[in-house]
Here is the input.
Amino acid sequence: MKTTVKFTYIALICAIMLGCLPLGIGAEISEGLTGATPGPECFTYRLNDDGTATITSYSGSGNAVAIPDELDGYKVTVIANEVFKNHKEITRIDFGASLLSIGDHAFEGCTALEVAILPTTLRYIGTGAFESCTSLYHIDFGSSLLDIGVSAFVNCDSLDSIFLPEALESVGNMAFTGCDSLRQVVVASTSARFGSAVFSEIPNITVYAPAGASALSIGDVKTATAALADSLTVESVLGGIEITAFKSGAKAVIVPEYIGSKRVVSIADGAFANRTALEAVYLPDSIRTIGKSAFENDRALGYIRLPRTLSNSISAQTFMGCSSLRRVYLPEGVEGIGISAFSGCSALTAVTFPESFSYLQSSAFYGASALRALIFWGDEPECSYKNSTPDIVSLGSAPESMKIYIDSARTWPRGAWYPNGKSGFVGFSVTARKYNCFFVEHMDVFASCAVEGKSTFTCAFCGESHSKTYPVTEHNYVSVSVSEDTETFRCTGCVSNYTLGLLSASTATVTAETSAAASGVDIIKSVTVTYRGKTLTYGVDYTYELEHIKESNRVELTVTGKGEYGGSQTVGYSTLDGRLLKTYTLTVIGASGSGTYFRDDIVTLIPDTPIPEGMEAVWTADGGKLLSAENDKAMLEMPAKDVTVILTSQKAPETTPPVTTEPSSPVTTPIETDPPVTTPEQTTPPATTPADTTTEREPFSSTPGAHQYLTRAMLWAVLLFVSFAAFIVLCIMMFHSEKKNKSKDKK
Here is the structure.
């Protein structure tokens, strides 16, 4: 039994050793990916080809998240797949203003997420992006949205109503399947393509769209035609036009941002009042003010999409008598609710108030007997006519079971809240929810070699901020001028500059002590460099390298400037007798390759610009030997003299295709009667077929890839052999030990 156990241990050890091999052998770094860089508040990102950023991961744990507009100065345009998946603690998200795309399953399983105000720049929502966000009750799609992916909002069973914008092109299969609370969907697009089962398993849904829209053909759902601009009466006002009346009996209306060339900026008093059939209304973001009684007594109205920002309060009696209105999300900018604004809204269950909200006037929610939740993101509002009769106080008909949700950092009373006063009224239960500050960095001043950098970190939710400074950076010097003996550099960020003395043949003298008795680079015994008569110091003013050119029997000494000196100079010495070799100048016009060379050097010349199609290169040299002269390059063997090479081009000769003669009928030759003619012996040498000049493909065994695979295979073989040998040795040692133990036991 002991032997079996030991065998098992050995086998496990060997298996672990072999299992670790791929970690050391097979791991490779993928090319073309930009490494993740830390961003503000626990983001990492990668750079896109267009210089924007994609958020690739999130490591935070707070319940409020702000997607920044920029990370390290790069615009954030994409949230990658699964970045926030299963972050069940997130209740609030502030989306950046430059976002274009949300990846697959990016927010899947964020079960506490309640509101998503998507930016107007957003174009794509990926597959399952918000799947199973079961607390998501309000979502506002941006006007540029093009595509909603497959199953994007599956099982978001708190969604009540949505608006799909005019730019929308496609909605994927099962996009809203399982959203069983979804009652009304307003579709502005006339041509959007809808996949199968987009709204399946939703019992009481109605889809509204303009006449002729593809959305009206969605199967298994109730549909209704939505009215457009031609149903509105308007008049010009300061800054645009105002809607003064709705003259249609349609069940829904989509108010456009523009009518003609003028922008819709306001809704007049009573403009949509007393429309008993009106069930859904979309208002564009261009609208800033809504007048008194604008929707009063619209008893069928169940959904209204308010503009993202309003510059006034909800006016008196605006929604009075809207007994089908279920949920209201008040946008930022709303400061208060006027007298009886929601009076008689008996189906109203929840209202969300922005940070800007500050007051409730009398009878604001009188008769709203179904209210179960008020969600406040700002401070406690002032309430009118406290301790008065129920029909006058702000929340006179609210049920005792209604709950108040507040930010714990706001100025609210602890315990119960008494918006109607304490005399004759009960307090409503207050649930304080703590939102962690989420600071987003904004660069005020980028650090440079001239100034310190400064950035401000601001919480997107409460406005708290702090600053951070960054030290000055190093100078970024670039060459601005080069003469025969100097090169000047100037910093791109300030006025700092410096000049280097160039170790050129005209300014510096390079000499070396040589020994013909040595061989190779050992013939160089010492090196001396002088610049304009000044002897330079090795390691401080210059360094040098030696290269042995065996086929030319020479050693090349290359001196490179350092410190206050730049440039380089190369001299050569014969390995046969140690003498200094002369260099010669090559001047090339129209191609690269100009410089100084030793005799017999092979120089490659490349055209400065490609030879045009239909032309051919003409290389001419006043010395040396042109080994080849093609359109894409030439090869020159350097002579013991200065040489000039000129590249020109001329029209390539036209090639005439061979003439194909049609076969003709055979010619009958009369019988030869004269003596046969004797043909002299052929003296022309046989035609020689030109050698095949087609370049053969390099055999796989000679490629770097083959060497890499061969190296891996050999390493695998060695490691396997060592592991197997170790296994055999361990087995022998164990059996030997076991045998000894048995012998001792017998004795």
About this structure: The radius of gyration is 42 Å. Residues 316 and 338 are 4 Å apart (CA to CA). The chain has a mean pLDDT of 85.
